[in-house]
Amino acid sequence: MPPIIDFSLPNENIADRNARLAGALGHACREVGFFYLRAHGLEAMIAPLFAASRSFFALPVEVKSGLALTSASGNRGYVGLRAEALDPGAPDNKEAFNVTAASDDGFWPETPGFRALMADYFARANDLGRAIHAALAIDLGLDPAYFQSRLDRPMSTLRLLHYPPAPPGGPLGAGEHTDYGNLTLLLTDDAGGLAVRRRDGEWIEAPPIPGAFVCNIGDCLMRWTNDVYLSTPHRVTSPAGRERYSIAFFLDPNADAMVEAIPSCVGPDRPARHAPIRADDYLASRFAATYGFGAARPQ
Questions:
Q1: Portion of the chain with pLDDT greater than 90, in percent
Q2: How far apart are CA 67 and CA 102, in angstroms?
Q3: Mind listing the domains of the chain with CATH numbers?
Q4: Helix residue ranges per DSSP H, 32-113
Q5: How many other CB atoms are found less than 10 A from the CB of residue 232?
Q6: Nearest to residue 218, comparing CAs of 230, 226, 207, 206?
Q7: Per-residue pLDDT reduced to its tens digit, 77-127
Q8: Is the pTM of this model over 0.85?
Q9: At what angle do helices 114-139 and 14-31 cross, to 10 degrees?
């Protein structure tokens, strides 16, 4: 089971919190790439978010399809059931709705309060992700503010996910994959089904913990740390006989951030393993492989 980390304690200032978190987060990111985060301050939003998500996915297919994600929509919109294959050749048994900072007036479903709730949560999750990066910077031997100028206009995505019931032996809810960006903050219902592959190849369950995020490192941050941090393969099995809902927030860097090996992660016995690349070019290549849209950059 991934480690459980408390984000905040009473009477603790930001500097003390970052110092406390740095070692625990750094260990988790090096060893398994996954961790649970409790006491994060967003607990009151969880029930309304899941209620809104269930309402959205209960809409008629023709309504949801009118908000479809396309090559021109900039990674925002509705992704239909089994339209995505995170593990190539094996369509996922899920549907999704993506929200970005650029989501405009014509994008939202006509559901009272939906847009305001998603925008509020988007901003709060974005702030939480950036705060986590301050502690990660300390673990990496950097100034706590190192990532902040690279995350002040991030290409973040909020993703609502619905996994219909799957028959025995049916398709996975989400095939084996790693996440593309820096950090994922995931909320899940109580259905379970998330599994993580350890360094030794064994798959372990990551069961839901009420009120806690399941967090993981993505490929972009792994690349930034010269593979010191681990972007861990994971998958979702759709529960038999019941639906599954989850809410993922993907914190990705600014479009123009240069992703290149952090100096503290490079040395005589560990040369840089990846060429420097702009964050938007890197993420565009990953989205193209998933959605088949070509090289349209995420927004």
A1: 69
A2: 14
A3: 4-291 (2.60.120.330)
A4: 46-57, 61-65
A5: 21
A6: 230
A7: 999 888 887 777 778 889 999 999 888 887 899 999 999 999 999 999 999
A8: yes
A9: 80
